[in-house]
Design brief:
The protein has 240 residues and is α/β, with parallel strands linked by helices. Helices cover 48% and strands 9% of the residues. It is built from ten helices and five strands. Bound molecules: adenosine-5'-diphosphate (ADP), shikimate-3-phosphate and magnesium ion.
């Protein structure tokens, strides 16, 4: 079993194509908690304010974070955008949401779907993602939920640390703004069906999985940030 499969123990069957690159050491997934257990996530960790100066020192050292985009994937309304922003803040690095870039370039997504259809959306979405992933340097990049169905995008993700966020339909229907999501607004219950269609793709690209319905955003932001630092450490060890 590959390292990233071990990290995805609660996310379903093994990927057909193991993803190369770090992490190389096992990163256990705590069953049911959705947290990577490679570090002491949660208890005893510094407050964000206290942690800030230390993060800055680490960043100047230049070796504490992956030197490329850390990518968030997962089903609609799992928390990619909101958690991605928080993790970027926690790590002191930029955040990019590829849906927001799409909107700046092509207009509102619901309207784009209505006028041009999903296939054209996917083509342009993949262009946006390719352009964002090609930029060097540490960044968090949140994708739209359907981005992984495009093979070109999945191929690009092989070269990036990928965090999969998972949740449940019940949690999504409770919290999400469905009007902004063209695939859900007329049929919210489609969420579960769409997830099952895409699940193999999510599992193929993911290095680690977190459940966003079982912990607060604050807890998750710290845990994912910790995981990203561990990923970079292993990457550096491999390169030395
Ligand atoms: N633990 C959590 N992590 C992330 N988002 C959460 C969490 N709990 C509730 N939410 C809410 O779920 C919604 C997720 O929306 P969003 O971040 O846009 O998801 P996505 O980008 O995956 O579609 C937001 O309204 C967010 O406030
Ligand atoms: O899952 C999908 O097909 C989509 C998800 C959306 O992003 P979020 O996952 O951020 O809601 C957005 O890209 C578009 O509405 C299509
Ligand atoms: Mg989003």
């Amino acid at each position: 079993m590959s390292a990233h499969r071990r990290a995805n123990r609660d996310a379903g069957p093994p990927a057909q194509r193991p993803k190369p690159g770090p992490p190389t050491a096992p990163i256990r997934q705590v069953p049911g908690s959705g947290e990577a257990a490679s570090g002491a996530a949660g208890a005893g960790r510094p407050t964000p304010a206290a942690a800030k100066p230390r993060r800055r020192r680490r960043r100047r050292g230049g070796s504490r974070l992956p030197d490329r985009a850390i990518v968030f994937v997962g089903p609609m309304a799992a928390g990619k955008t909101s958690l991605g922003k928080r993790v970027a803040r926690e790590l002191g690095i930029p955040f990019v949401d590829t849906d927001a870039v799409f909107v700046r370039q092509h207009g509102v997504i619901t309207e784009f779907f209505a006028t041009h259809g999903e296939a054209e959306f996917r083509r342009l979405e993949a262009d946006v993602i390719e352009s964002e992933l090609s930029a060097p340097g540490s960044r968090i990049v949140a994708l739209g939920g359907g981005a992984v169905i495009t093979e070109r995008t999945r191929r690009l993700l092989q070269d990036h640390p990928v965090v999969l966020l998972m949740t449940t339909q019940e949690a999504v229907l409770r919290t999400a703004n469905l009007a902004r999501r063209p695939l859900l607004r007329d049929d919210p219950e489609a969420w579960g069906r769409i997830l099952e269609e895409r699940r193999p793709f999510y599992e193929e690209v993911a290095d680690v999985t977190y459940r966003t319905d079982r912990a607060t955003k604050e807890q998750l932001a710290r845990r994912v940030a910790q995981w990203a630092r561990g990923y970079a450490r292993k990457q550096n060890e491999r390169e030395q």
